[in-house]
């Protein structure tokens, strides 16, 4: 794989039909962030690896015709995705993976081992229109303010506006944490010139993601950013993890999921 020093946007391509669903979204993000694009998949055997690689090279030719300025490569690994996440980040400089949400079950174990975010899409509408408005819920967790770094990337490089929804806490300790997180977000966003709107929601940290998603779904041009769960409770095994429940409710809204279990990778800009 050429040019390993360049950060890459991975497009998880499982089928040729993912071209519109995933590849075009990944290409737009790569263009905005000025990163390389890598068509990516996982194989169980050398035979399957050869088959998948052949299919990805066909898609690569389409990509080079449509987006000639985006440097595109192909990578198919053998083994499990979860055991390869560190390698993808360190050896291939992956900073984001774009995935069709129908493959959530295939990639969730990899996401839990990932230091870079996963962007789940379903290909409805153009990527450029979808990223006009970013919705960022802020709760009492430290990681929710760290997610603002990715919101700032979309504001800076994709010309997105950002809407920040702070949790409405009743108890003083949680309220202090939310206000501290929002202050940190204000300080970060104040360094840039993209439009920002701040609001305090009606729900606590336990409901602010759902409330923010409802607001995002009212528009046709939104991106939703969320921090995933630290661990899976017995309740999660019954009804699904928070990120799975958000994806189930997200309709056509792309969802950027950030893993709080790992240190977050950042863009070189």
What key attributes describe this structure?
269 residues, alpha/beta, Rossmann fold, 10-stranded mixed β-sheet
Quick take:
By secondary structure, the chain is an alpha/beta fold. The protein is 42% helix and 22% strand. It has 2 domains: 114 residues, HUPs (Rossmann fold), CATH 3.40.50; 132 residues, Rossmann fold, CATH 3.40.50.620.
List the helices and strands and how they pair.
Blueprint (H helix, E strand, L loop, with lengths): L7 E5 L5 H16 L2 E8 L2 H21 L5 E7 L6 H6 L3 E7 L3 H8 L6 E4 L5 H4 L2 E6 L3 H5 L1 H10 L3 E6 L5 H18 L6 E5 L7 H10 L4 E6 L6 H6 L2 H8 L5 E4 L11
Parallel strand pairs: 1-2, 1-4, 2-3, 4-5, 6-7, 6-9, 7-8, 9-10
Antiparallel strand pairs: 5-10
- Structural domain count: 2
Query: What is the CATH class of the largest domain?
Result: Alpha Beta
Shape: globular
Assigned CATH superfamily of the largest domain: HUPs
Question: Which secondary-structure class do the elements indicate?
Answer: alpha/beta
Q: Biggest sheet: strands side by side, in what order?
A: 3-2-1-4-5-10-9-6-7-8
CATH architectural type of the largest domain: 3-Layer(aba) Sandwich
Nearest-integer average pLDDT: 91
CATH topology of the largest domain: Rossmann fold
Query: Helix amount, in percent?
Result: 40-55%
Please trace the helix and strand order, writing H or E for each element: EHEHEHEHEHEHHEHEHEHHE
Uncertain runs: none
DSSP strand (E) fraction?
A: 15-25%
Amino-to-carboxy terminus distance:
22 Å
Gyration radius from CA atoms, angstroms: 18 Å
Can you count the helices? 11
